[in-house]
Every structure is written in structure tokens, then in C-alpha cells.
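Example record used in the benchmark description.
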Amino acid sequence: MKKNTRFWVIVWAAAVIICMIIIYVIPSIAGVFDRTYVAEYGSVEVSDDVDAFIIRDESVYTAPAAGEVNRLVKEGQLVKAGSRIVEITGTGRSQKTNTSKSVLESLGKKSYTAEGGKTDVAGYVSYYIDGAEGKLTTSRADKLSQDKLRSYSSVSVNQFGKGRVAKGEPVFKITTNGDWLVVFYVDKGSSGHFKAGNQVTMTFPGQDNDVIGTVRSVKKQSGSYRVMIDSNMMFKSMLNKRKASITVTSASADGIVIKTSSLVKKNGQQGVIVKNKVGKLVFKPVMIKADNGTEAAVYQDLYMDDQGNFHNTMTVYDEVLKDPSDSDVKNATVLK
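Model output (C-alpha cells):
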């Protein structure tokens, strides 16, 4: 009786193992040898996560006399030239603080006296000052190395424009209401995502709305590639930031989504190899809308090339070869 029981336990265990092999192992093995996939309609984005430096044009204003500072304008508010930003009354300090001295030393001659607490230029008001305002400017950006950008952007940002001040201490700054720059570095592969004049979308942490910019330049610098982007879309928190980890989307398109490993060339034309309904291999030319290195979005049914010629191309649910061999390309007939 015990032997019978043991026998059936072994049979039951073997059956369980066989079922598990059928359910889990065989499909995964089959997937390795599955040479095709079904192409569907979708979207492809070309995005890069980068550590970016923010460069803007700023004017730092200092107290015309010692006194108590009272802010009249909120942080981030846009003002006209001649607007009164602060009022300074009463008794102030006789000596500048060490923080003020450090900031003024970094600024050099790049500061202005706020006569009557007013600004001479239009722009956005900020009370966050670090002394890099005279060095990180849009006109000097092209001359700054990555090391310089890193150094200037790592300075402590201090808040001014409140409490007692000595004559000549910083009290506010104005950020020009115009183009500002985003600068970051990428490798050679990602540098191809950016071309001067092309529009990009930048996503900043903590911001609900994306920021649109235009690629100013892409330049090889110290073994990597420096990308410089112009924008005139302002947001409040950028006034006190010198750097940020952002996502830059350089292309986004809807279309039939294929794997880039499927792309081949036949007779000098780019395309993919598909299996038709009777299992024959057919070469279909494609035109790429967006390519992120792994997937690409291509046109559906028909497209026009750069010479104005029309080509029949892929359709939704085509069965596409994942990684066609030279033999596949040679034996495939060309779609007409």
C-alpha cells in the first residue's frame, strides 16, 4: 500500500513538473526562435535625460544707502524699467556682511546702484543672488568650458533684499525678459538627436508645463558634445536655479512602430523584410519619422521621398522580421 502511494505521489509530481515546463519553459524557448513580430500603430519619442546648466542675463542691484529693506515686488514678478522694487528706510548696518562681500567680489563691476530702489531695466525680479550673474551670460556662453560651467553653477545661492543692509550690499536682481540658454553635454550617439534650428521640448522637475526651445548649436568639446538650446519661455523657479536634471525630447511621432534591428537596405533603399500571407519574404521600403535607437515610427501605406516620388510601404499588422539575414534580404522580392 505504501509503495502504491509513493508511486502515485511520484506520478503526480512528474505531471506537475511537465505542466510547468509546458506553461513556462517552452513558450520562452519558442520566443528565442521567433523571428518575426506584428507591427502595430503607435508612437515613438526620442528623449535624453541630461544634467543641464541654465544661463540667463541678469543685473544685480545694490543699496544706495544703509537702511532697512522692504520688498515692494514679489519674487518672479515681471516689471517694467523704472519700477520701484524695494524701499530702504531707517538705520542699516555700517559694514557689509561676509556673504555680501563674497558675492560682490565675484560680480566685480557687474552691479548697479538701485537709486530710489528702482530698476533701470525690464525683466523678472529675484532676490536670489550668487555672484555668478556677471560670468554666466548668454553672450559669454560659447566661451565657457564644461569645468567653468560646473564651477560657476556650484556657488551657493543666497537670498537678499530683506532686513538691515549696508550701503552697496545686494538687494535684488533683474533677469532679462528674453532668450535664455540651456547647456548640456551628451555622447556622440546622442549628439545626432540634435540639429541647429530644430525645436525641442524640455521637461523640468516640479514644472507642470514643458518648455519649448530651439537648438542653437551642437559642438564637440573635450571628448563629448555640447548642446546649446535657446528658449524664451520663463518659469518662476528657474530664476534661482543654475542647473537641473531635465528630459529633452528632440523628436516625437506617430506611425507604424518597428524595431530598428529590422531595418535593412536593398538596392540602395532602406526598408524592412515582411512575410506575406503565403509566407514569402517581401522587401518594403520605409521612411522614418522618429528613431530612438531601439524603435522607429515609420509612415503607413504610402509616403513621398525627398525627390517627390511616391512609394508603397508598410501596413498595420505586417509580420516583420526582427533581424533579417543577408540571405533574407537577397531572397526578398521588392514591393511594387
